[in-house]
Amino acid sequence: MKYTSTIRLDNGVLKLVNKAEMLKFALSLNCKEFVFTLEKKRSKRSNEQNRYYWGVVVPLVKQGLTELGNVVSLESTHDFIKSEFNYKEIVNETTGEVKKLPNSTTQLNKTEFSEMIERVKIWSAEWCNIYIPDAGEQMTIEL
């Protein structure tokens, strides 16, 4: 089990934000030693970014892939986006062959997520002739 909490550095002193909650969790583990990990707090993508991604970006990319003759779901479209626009390259040292290893988008901060979406928008325009509007941009659709 894992517990995550915010810790603030105030004049050289570490201060726990939810000390009582953390103590309760520690007691529930019924042990005397713990592993402590410290990392810089990052702001993850916002709920608005997530709604824009799943409500606008993914459906429009799905539409573009469908118009190119592919049968895809929203989930497979998301997997495609991760593999093409959010990946780590791994190299076979013996052969020099490079493969893409998709990363989870949930670990991206707001800036990284926005940058990924910009790459998706450029690709969609070039490959699928699909325009993905900016978040909050109003569009008119003729029926």
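(the above was protein one; protein two follows)
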Amino acid sequence: MYWPIALLLQESSSSPGFGGLGMFLPLLLIFAVFYLFIIRPQQKREKKRKAMIQAVKRGDKVVTAGGIHGKVHQVDESSVLLDVDGGIKLRIEKNSVASVKT
């Protein structure tokens, strides 16, 4: 009565498979999906953002990450001087520029 179960267990353990690769194949596929749909698009967005920040020049209208709208008065190596309103000037870091409207 127990021999069919023992026979099934024996067949399943001795069947040829992928070996160690069969265990890691789902993990590799999950990593590939994460790379294609999450990591790679984020890298592209960051590269585009850095190029936008490096291209900021005097006269551009920008919006900061804090929501401040202003016109670029002066560009330094790591900061930007914004003319906000009525002659008020703010110095901000280049990294806080969220968007540029030329």
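Reviewer note on protein two: The radius of gyration is 29 Å.
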